[in-house]
Design a protein that fits this description.
With 280 residues, the protein is α+β, with helices and mostly antiparallel strands. The protein has helices at residues 13-17, 26-66, 131-136, 192-203, 239-251; strands at residues 178-179, 187-188, 213-223, 229-234, 256-257, 259-261, 264-278.
Length: 280
């Protein structure tokens, strides 16, 4: 008795898989026809590809076969008559411009100087006034009427203070001018310029300034004779920084020591540069 489980080489993989199963099922039919469908699809796809690739060549071949034969045109050389050149008439020469008028030399001013002939001095008919009259008023070449002004007024005698001589006290002249340079510069009364810079940094509000990086400005103000500040002005490129710098200087109420000229306090201008770094 032959072994029923022996492998038959003629059987395909589909027959082995669907052995003892319903071969009328659609899956068996699809797997059985798959090689044929694959071959048919390959042939159809290759044909369509070749048609698409050869279509331009076929179109050009058909167009070349159907186009009419070229017509030969006999072209004879035609002699071209050369137009006579227009002879330009020579332009009339313009007359040269007239020469400029001669420049007159500037005349030198001459003052007539006539030497007068010597004449004998006439005799003075009016005698000079006496010395007592000359002291009462002014003298001159021509007489005129007016208020009498003594020619000489003696100074008043100094007041008698016994044996000691009194000396009049000379008060210095007070001026309201603002000095750009002084003999003794103005200084902050509480720690000098470093103390003023410290108070400036303590009162400066960074939140009111919009900007990043290093900002700089120069604050100028006038130190008055009483130590107060006026004319506060900042001249930097950032307006927010300038406004806050001016506000900070005005908020410091501590007095300054005014500048001096010839030992006297005067109004002087002070320059205070400021540079701060702001991080974004």
């Amino acid at each position: 008795m032959a072994n029923e489980n022996a492998y038959d080489p003629r059987l395909t993989l589909d027959e082995i898989v669907f052995e003892n199963r319903n071969k009328e099922y659609g899956a068996y039919d699809l797997r059985h026809q798959y090689p044929r469908l694959l071959t048919k699809s390959f042939i159809v796809g290759t044909t369509l590809f070749l048609i698409a690739a050869l279509s331009p060549f076929i179109y050009l071949t058909i167009k070349r076969l159907t186009e009419p034969p070229p017509q030969e045109v006999k072209a004879d050389l035609v002699e071209i008559l050369q137009e006579d050149k227009i002879i330009e008439q020579p332009k009339e020469e313009e007359p040269p411009p007239p020469p400029p008028p001669p420049k007159e030399e500037e005349k030198i001013e001459i003052i007539q100087n006539v030497v007068p002939e010597p004449v004998k001095a006439p005799k003075i008919e009016t005698p000079p006034p006496p010395i007592s009259k000359q002291l009462e008023t002014q003298t001159g070449l021509v007489a005129q009427e007016g208020v009498k002004a003594p020619a000489y007024t003696p100074p008043p005698p100094p007041p008698s203070t016994g044996t000691k001589t009194s000396t009049a006290e000379v008060k210095p002249q007070v001026t309201n001018d603002v000095y750009e340079s002084v003999d003794q510069s103005a200084d902050f009364s509480s720690g000098g310029i470093n103390g003023f810079r410290s108070k400036f940094m303590d009162n400066f509000d960074n939140s009111s300034v919009e900007g990043e990086g290093t900002l700089s400005t120069e604050i100028t103000f006038v130190v008055e004779r009483d130590g107060s500040l006026s004319q506060v002005k900042a001249s930097g490129s950032n307006q927010d920084f300038n406004r806050e710098a001016e506000r900070t200087v005005k908020s410091i109420k501590t007095k300054w020591i005014p500048g001096k000229v010839n030992g006297q306090p005067v109004r002087s201008r002070f320059r205070f540069p400021v540079k701060m770094n702001f991080e974004g």
